[in-house]
Design goal:
This protein is α/β, with parallel strands linked by helices and 295 residues long. The chain has nine helices and seven strands. Helices cover 34% and strands 15% of the residues. The longest helix is centred in the middle third of the chain and has 22 residues. The structure holds nicotinamide-adenine-dinucleotide. Nicotinamide-adenine-dinucleotide binds next to α2, α4 and β5.
């Protein structure tokens, strides 16, 4: 079999929804009838909302908070809490695939994490099973392995070492994804997102940064790769310094095209040299390793 990888030229006018453009691989362009995006009112939800619309006829958006801005044609909004099983079941009806961003996104008191990330993620997978949803892209987190040191390079198959209850809840989500693949054949790509912001905010993020364009490339690759089973991948751009080896997830065809390096000089000039005895500098999870408990 000959695989031809198309060379993109600088003046290439290929539309943004051509998957070859996004991944660099000769994938069949795919358009979904209906996608569900949870956590649509959040930081990454707001970024992915217009970007995902390019890949589907209908985009169902959900969050417990109201959305900013009016809906555009092809968008639907359902306000729902992930702790409400019936509401989550209704979200999954008629959906081909789910991008699951909803939930608590930082270290918080246990009750909040329990509702959004443990119970809520369980409700989502149960709804997917009942509704026959084939694939979920799960927003996991690098904090699943936050207690590895910054001088170690680890991969998705190393044992988890959560740096708090939040990281632990994401490890639960990944285990749930594995169970629903092994038992119910629902595919998941668990993306252990590093730090997805307009630009790196501190020295740690030089290693963990994921640009919004690369986030889109990664989510699209996760939605469209032919076979994923349950794949775990670290969500990062092509940063010069990295703690994560994504070799085992190459089958997704994700090719990062941004790098944090262009921010390094200015960032290092305005931020003091790190205290090497600080746990936030020793461990990959940064300040999360010393956030909480809250009681
Ligand atoms: N932004 C990053 O760099 C980053 C890094 C690692 C992981 N992640 C993960 O990616 C996802 C999105 O991150 P974000 O930065 O947009 O977070 P965010 O906090 O801005 O957005 C999360 C959204 O989920 C909603 N939500 C929370 N609990 C809910 C519940 N019980 N029911 C319904 N909705 C609920 C919130 O209202 C919010 O709009 C999160 O799951 C987060 O853990 C993000």
């Amino acid at each position: 079999m000959t695989i031809v990888v198309r060379q993109l030229m600088p003046d290439d006018k290929t539309p943004a929804f051509d998957l070859n453009t996004m991944t660099g691989l000769p994938l069949t362009p795919l358009r979904f009838a209906r996608l569900l995006l949870t956590g649509a009112a959040g930081n990454l939800g707001r970024e992915l909302r217009p970007r995902l619309k390019k890949y589907c006829d209908a985009l169902r958006l959900s969050d417990r908070e109201p959305l900013a801005g009016d809906l555009v044609p092809g968008e639907e909004f359902v306000r729902a809490g992930l702790g409400d099983a019936a509401a989550v079941q209704a979200l999954a009806e008629g959906v081909a695939a789910i991008v699951h961003l909803g939930g608590v996104s930082t270290e918080r008191p246990w009750e909040q994490i329990l509702d959004g990330n443990i119970v809520g993620t369980y409700h989502l997978y149960e709804a997917a099973r009942r509704c026959g949803v084939g694939r979920i892209v799960f927003a996991s987190s690098n904090h699943v392995t936050g207690f590895y040191r910054q001088d170690e390079v680890i991969g998705p198959h190393d044992p988890v070492r959560p740096d708090g209850l939040y990281g632990l809840s994401k490890a639960f989500g990944e285990n749930l994804a594995q169970l629903y693949w092994d038992r119910h054949r629902i595919e998941t790509v668990s993306i252990r997102i590093g730090s997805s912001f307009p630009e790196p905010k501190d020295r740690r993020m030089l290693a963990t940064w994921l640009s919004f364009d690369d986030l889109e490339r990664l989510v699209v690759a996760a939605l469209t790769a032919p076979v994923v089973g349950h794949t775990v991948i670290y969500g990062m751009s092509d940063n010069a310094a990295t703690w994560w080896d994504n070799t085992t997830a190459r089958h997704l065809g994700y090719r990062a095209q941004d790098s944090s390096e262009r921010f390094r000089a200015a960032l290092e000039a305005r931020q003091p040299a790190p205290d090497r005895g600080d746990p936030a500098v020793i461990y990959q999870g940064g300040a999360f390793v010393r956030t909480g408990p809250f009681a």
